[in-house]
Specification:
16 strands, globular, 3-stranded antiparallel sheet, Aspartate Aminotransferase, domain 2, Aspartate Aminotransferase, domain 1, 7-stranded mixed sheet, binds pyridoxal-5'-phosphate
Length: 455
């Protein structure tokens, strides 16, 4: 596609070739309803998209990692919204907040108790920092094919077995919206004096429902604001319940972050916080009623839904009862003009925010209600009876020379990457773990045919 642009100075018409820009334009022209990130949905009048605000560190614009002016003031206001003792902004996504959190609380050479479905940003950080993981498995209590939740008693046992662990680190909510018992786990962590760190990437908006991890007793949380709030991509907050440690986390974030944070993204965080205080909390509560109605429509036509406590505004449909994999269902939704956030072998996930228009929501409701029902696909749960043996640290494994080999040849080798079938969205092996025959069978059964192993 040729795009024409007037160059003011040269007064000539040039043809530009910009494949990424052209793909974005072509996508936007299709006009699909956006049920994916970012939370502003391209439909938010108050965002400062104007390039005149794409600025840098100047005497009157402060500096992220040495903030003492307007950025620090914006962080203080965000801390008041979350009820945190300290909040730091990130334009490097939640990943930067996770890196800072682990570096400040755990650091090189320490041991951390992790739930098994942590995002790769945490696996990579453990590798970069040389953290030794202790894994806690999920209970399959989320619904067919979902990872489920970690149970507070399993965390207690892990702490008792590993009294030298520097921290406990969990993901909640997960991608499908399932919430772990953060309050119960925080109480256990507090009893054993272990900081509870929560990857709350998908749950910044949970402050509207009194379900934010900081409200429930976590020591710190990393919140990917751009996923569910009207924030530009990359905008995230780190929240901490201790001012001095929060400030240490911010210094640790500087180890990993760019020295050129996006002012547009940081300003969008500031504006989103202001919107949350004025209207957002009420808007998310209203949205919860809409999502509850969508779930009723979905259940009435035969979709499965996650079980137990969930994010009130995350819509996850289990598609096998309808005779389709999640990926096939996502394609069907796409043909009907509905773009989801995620799909896999058994589920399709929609991110709704107050910035979805009524037309978007009507389209989604209608497509769910008219969804064709086929013969249900049966699901055989994959629950490994025990976790693979750890042979090397994630650091040694991820930074070693590796080769990509067929899974049937991988028995007896050490994984150089996480291999994660979806469902259930929990890695079968993590980097550094021994791939035994049971792992090989599970990987093949779930369609994973090649894997990176240490040479
Ligand atoms: C559970 C979870 N944690 C962390 C991240 C990383 O967040 P970001 O993309 O904002 O760096 C993601 C991104 O998808 C995620 O799903």
């Amino acid at each position: 596609m040729a795009v024409q642009r007037n160059e003011n100075k040269m007064n000539t018409v040039q043809t530009i070739s910009a494949p990424l820009y052209e793909a974005l334009k072509a996508h936007a022209e299709q006009g699909r309803a956006s049920f994916h990130t970012p939370g502003h949905k391209g439909n938010c009048a108050f965002l400062p998209l104007d390039r005149q605000y794409d600025l840098t560190e100047l005497p009157d614009t402060d500096s992220l990692f040495e903030a003492s002016g307007c950025i620090r003031e914006s962080e203080r206001k965000a801390a008041r919204l979350f009820g945190a003792a300290y909040t730091a902004v990130s334009s490097g996504g939640c990943t930067l907040a996770i890196q800072g959190m682990l570096a400040a609380f755990a650091g090189t050479g320490s041991k951390v108790i992790f739930c098994r479905n942590i995002h790769r940003s945490a696996v990579n950080t453990a590798a970069l920092l040389g953290i030794a993981p202790v894994w806690v498995s999920h209970r399959c209590d989320g619904g067919e094919g979902l990872p489920g939740r970690v149970c507070a008693e399993d965390i207690r046992r892990a702490i008792e077995k590993n009294p030298d662990a520097a921290a406990v680190y969990l993901t909640s909510p997960d991608y499908y919206g399932c919430l772990s018992d953060i309050k119960g786990i925080a109480e256990i962590c507090s009893f054993y004096e272990k900081p509870l760190l929560v990857d709350n990437a998908h749950g910044t908006h949970l402050i509207s429902f009194g379900m934010h991890p900081i409200t429930l007793g976590a020591a710190a949380s990393a919140c990917s604001a751009h996923k569910t709030l009207p924030v530009l991509t990359g905008g995230a907050w780190l929240n901490c319940n201790d001012e001095a440690i929060g400030s240490k986390i911010k210094s640790s974030m500087a180890l990993f972050g760019s020295t050129s944070p996006s002012y547009l993204t940081m300003a969008s965080l500031d504006l989103a916080r202001d919107w949350m205080e004025r209207e957002g909390i009420a808007a998310f509560r209203e949205l919860a009623g809409i999502v509850s109605g969508l779930r009723e429509v979905a259940a009435s036509v035969g979709f499965g839904l996650p079980q137990g406590e969930c994010d009130p505004v995350r819509l996850t449909l289990l598609t096998r009862p309808m005779g389709m994999t999640g990926d096939e269902a996502a394609e069907y939704f796409r043909r009907k003009g509905v773009e989801c956030e995620h799909s896999d072998g058994g589920a399709v996930v929609f991110i709704l925010t107050p910035f979805n228009s009524e037309t978007d929501i009507d389209r989604l409701r209608h497509t769910i209600g008219a969804f064709p029902k086929g013969r249900p696909i049966t699901y055989e749960p994959i629950v490994p009876d025990e976790l693979p043996m750890i042979i090397k640290s994630p650091r040694e494994a991820l930074l070693s020379r590796s080769e990509n080999i067929p899974v049937p040849e991988a028995a007896g080798r050490i994984a150089a990457e996480a291999a994660c079938p979806c469902p259930p969205g929990v890695p079968v092996v993590m980097p550094g773990e021994l791939i035994d025959k049971k792992c090989v069978n599970i990987l093949l059964k779930t369609g994973i045919t090649r894997i990176n192993v240490i040479e």
